[in-house]
Amino acid sequence: MTTQESELQAAKTRLDANLASLQKIQDNIKKLQEDGQKLTQPILEDQGIVRVLEKIISEGKEKTD
Predict the structure, then answer these.
(1) pLDDT (tens digit, 9 = 90+) per residue, 26-63?
(2) What CA–CA distance (Å, rounded) separates 15 from 9?
(3) What is the pTM of this model?
(4) Dist CA 54 CA 6 (whole Å)
(5) Distance CA 22, CA 25 (A)
(6) Rounded distance, CA 15 to CA 23, Å?
């Protein structure tokens, strides 16, 4: 094998490894985005609960003061 052929093979090997790494990263990003979307509704619900409870507690304190 010539030097150029060796360099070509090394470049192809690096390219394949980099493409595989990129695909894995993109798959991880997609999964994280999906996981984040699944959390949106529970977060909104919890925010609403916190607001209501804070208001109830605040009003209760005002009545006892």
Answers:
(1) 999 999 999 999 999 999 999 999 999 999 999 988 87
(2) 10
(3) 0.67
(4) 69
(5) 5
(6) 12
